[in-house]
Amino acid sequence: MELREHGACGTFGVLAERFLRMLRDERGASDHTLRAYTREVRGVAGFLTEMLGEDAAMRDVEHTHIRAYMGTLMDRGLTKASVARALAAVRSWFKWAAKAGLVESNPALLVRTPKLPKHLPRVPSMEEVNRVLDSMGPARTAGRASRKTEDAGVAFEASWPERERVIFELLYGCGIRNSELVGLNMDSIHWNDDAVRVFGKGKKERLVPLGDAAAESVRAYLPLRQAKLEAAGKGKLVHDGPLLVNARMRGTCRLTTRSVGRIVKSIALSGGLAADVHPHTLRHAFGTHMLEEGADLRAIQEMLGHERLSTTQRYTQLTVGQVQRVYDETHPRAK
Questions:
Q1: Among the options 177, 225, 254, 284, which is catalytic?
Q2: Could you tell me which of 68, 50, 63 has the C-alpha nearest to residue 11?
């Protein structure tokens, strides 16, 4: 009955729900991953049911069927990146089916991933990031509207300079993801070890060094956080609640990733950075600047929580590109 309520239909629908339940309960996939996989896997399950019938089995699926589904996505106007993400989800579903003995091999592996243009993230320089951090403080946000405003139909998070600095310092100083940032609790800060305990993708735990500047910003923010929680009658969250709380003390008081995105964008624009700066930009800046200063690639991999070194190696492409740009701009034979 539970599967029917979730929209499952036929064999493919039932197996899709089993796979999604496994991602949630056994792998501890993030909410973002679950939403994406739910959309993609249910989509292909419905397509296969319509094409092959409700009584068809997973072993009846051939790579041509999956390729046909990818074609429908392209016909709907999805970008190559979106189609590639859908194919990745389908491959994971059939990989799970192969391990469960439902298919002998993964037919999705025979479907070619759309060729994507290689876009390296735009990263602000160390000087630009330091300029923004140096400009932050009560004076920068004084007079800024703290009343409830509407941003695309969502209430804008009220200004709170001390908390904003913590957000920027932790994203850039620790290189953590937006979801990891909002997931921090009071006991996530290990003061004796100068480290932050982070739960990354798949609920994998890691310790990230907490720099002096980030630690100082957290210490300046905590008394204000406590005062706001106690004033709102939520003193029980002072020692055990989320580190970053929303300004209006609503619900669980935990700040959302969406609010963090808006806050970072506001800080970036006020500091003269590009309009496309978002929380992940600061994570890229962390890795790029560490590498530029001579940090070991595997150490950066550990701090960022990358499962594969190849993911971290993207930062070497960034620095090579920067070197090339400097060469083109300064060497007399390059002009």
A1: 177
A2: 50
